[in-house]
Design goal:
Elements (H helix, E strand, L loop, with lengths): L2 E2 L1 E4 L1 H5 L9 H14 L3 E5 L5 H13 L4 E7 L2 H11 L5 E8 L2 H8 L3 H18 L3 E6 L6 H14 L3 E6 L6 H14 L5 E6 L6 H11 L3 E4 L13 H10 L1 H4 L1 E2 L7 H12 L20 H9 L27 H10 L6 H15 L7 H11 L8 E9 L6 E9 L4 E8 L2 H13 L3 E10 L8 E9 L2 E9 L2 H26 L1
Helix pairs in contact: 2-3, 2-12, 3-4, 4-6, 6-7, 7-8, 8-9, 9-10, 15-16, 17-18
The structure holds 3-methyl-2-oxobutanoic acid (KIV) and zinc ion.
Length: about 500
């Protein structure tokens, strides 16, 4: 048995606060559920004092998650500590995570506090947190640019005041692996043995994962990371890269985590689906090309012996290659089996809905691949809270000599059929304008993108529409072999989500 490394996932906090990655209440809950299945030790659910929405989401995650710790971040300010505790006290194992900067630049320009004030504030606030919550983590923000002696003094004092975990963030991604090794080694010698030493590395210079691994070698036993490496600016250390490095090179690191590696791929996909943030094809571990072997020499090697060019197998991270092809004649049972083989669980209701979509797709596409099935699963769960409007039909005229015109017909939940015709800068703009006229919502399209789920002439396309509606950023997704239809469905999906959010807010008032 190797040394056990604790994984704190901060996708819902540091990840979520980065541009383009915001998630709504339901999406955060769905993501938390998947992180629990993935086997992370601690889910950092958010920053409750940032907004009432953040507070509610953290509170809901704390109530829902039972199999891992739930942490929430707060500043070293008494009312923030108390309010954050209110958000997480319902968790099976709550953790209060306090942060206070220790670097000269942060203390002088951001906090406007002297080092002595920072020291006494850390002690006082950790003491307060400890009275509320048995599990307290203290982070010395910008630790890597702090004076090592002062850093050690604050961290030891915080530990003495009750922090059971001390976290050393490389907040601006400035450190090198050798420097992180030194910082962690120094602190490990100074802190009592029972205090867990943690690191939190940002990726501004592309060294977050290397810094995290070097810190583990120096004695860190908790690491903070995010799925797909999302996070402030260039992101955080990517969970899948850290975990698979430890797993694949256990001969070298001699460490293990509690992560169910076979859940990695679907966790990564789920996040990308929810946020609309595509995974670059060359991203280690989860990128589309991570297991693709294009060149003849490599293919030959792989066929002769996989380990010639593959250091981990796709199956290890939960990518399965099925032997049986699904198609038009496959029944619900075959779809259910494939879904389960891929490692997903679905309620009977979701399965029935996924089967309807499967049949519609099989009418247009000869072979339904695993990637198609996964796309169907994704579009049948989180994304269909309630469909106030369903697409009935559309007709679009466009070309180089006329401006695009779209006629869109929708069916509202009360059964009324609504139709509108609109012009636009192109076919998609025209169709979205027609939908706007029908639904009459005050929303604005921020971004639209399209990508092929599979290759070939009858490839399934997945469109993503990001809208802003009453201050909420919402991501909608649509699937079809027809790119216009996929786009319309993605826009409608975003509108339906916006309506669900509005209705929830009205109900809660
Ligand atoms: O990057 C950072 O310093 C942080 C802390 C709040 C842990 O995210
Ligand atoms: Zn951070």
């Amino acid at each position: 048995m190797g040394k056990r490394i604790w994984i704190l996932d901060t996708t819902l906090r540091d990840g979520e606060q980065s541009p383009g990655c915001s998630m709504n209440f339901h999406e955060k809950l769905e993501m938390a559920k998947q992180l629990e299945r993935l086997g992370v030790d601690i889910i950092e659910a958010g920053f409750p004092v940032a907004s009432p929405d953040d507070f509610k989401a953290v509170e809901a995650v704390a109530h829902q998650v039972r199999d891992c710790r739930v942490a929430a971040l707060c500043r070293c300010v008494a009312r923030d500590v108390e309010r954050t505790w209110e958000a997480i006290q319902g968790a099976a194992a709550p953790r209060l995570h306090l942060v206070l900067a220790t670097s000269p630049v942060h203390m002088e320009h951001k906090l406007r506090m002297t080092p002595e004030q920072v020291l006494s504030c850390a002690v006082e606030m950790v003491g307060l947190a400890k009275k509320l919550c048995p599990d307290v983590e203290f982070s010395a923000e910008d630790a890597s640019r702090s004076d090592p002696e002062f850093l050690a003094k604050v961290c030891c004092a915080a530990a003495q005041a009750g922090a059971s975990t001390i976290n050393l963030p490389d907040t601006v991604g400035y450190s090198t692996p050798q420097e992180m090794f030194q910082i962690v080694s120094h602190l490990r010698q100074r802190l009592p043995e029972q205090v867990v030493l943690s690191v939190h590395n940002h990726n501004d210079l592309g060294m977050a994962v290397a810094n995290t691994l070097a810190s583990i070698q120096a004695g860190a036993t908790q690491v903070e990371c995010t799925i797909n490496g999302i996070g402030e600016r260039a992101g955080n250390a990517s969970l899948e890269e850290v975990v698979m490095a430890l797993h694949t090179r256990r001969d070298y690191f001699g460490c293990e985590t509690g992560i169910q590696t076979r859940q990695i791929y679907r966790t990564s996909k789920l996040l990308s689906t929810i946020t609309g943030m595509e995974i670059p094809p060359n991203k280690p571990v989860v990128g589309g090309n991570a297991f693709a072997h294009e060149s003849g020499i490599h293919q030959h090697g792989i066929l002769a012996e996989r380990s010639t060019y593959e250091i981990m197998s796709p199956e290890e991270i939960g990518i399965y290659q099925s032997k049986m092809i699904l198609g038009k004649h496959s029944g619900k049972h075959a779809l259910k089996e494939r879904i389960e083989e891929l490692g997903y669980r679905m309620s009977e209701e979701d399965l029935a809905e996924a089967f309807e979509r499967f049949k519609a797709l099989a009418d247009r596409k000869k072979e339904i691949t695993d990637r198609d099935v996964e796309a169907l699963i994704r579009s049948s769960t989180v994304y269909n809270l309630k469909e106030t409007y369903k697409l009935d039909s559309f007709v679009i005229n466009s070309g180089t000599v006329i401006s695009a015109t779209a006629v869109v017909k929708l069916i509202r939940e009360d059964g009324e059929v609504l139709e509108h015709v609109s012009r636009g800068e192109g076919p998609i703009d025209a169709a979205f304008n027609a939908i706007d006229r029908i639904v009459k919502m005050d929303s604005c399209l921020e971004n639209w993108s399209m990508q092929a789920v599979t290759e070939g002439e009858d490839a399934l396309g997945e469109a993503v529409s990001k809208i802003v509606c009453n201050g909420h950023r919402i991501t909608g997704r649509g699937l079809s072999t027809d790119i216009l239809e996929a786009s319309i469905r993605s826009y409608l999906n975003a509108i339906n989500k916006a309506i669900a959010i509005e209705e929830r807010m009205v109900a809660e008032k």
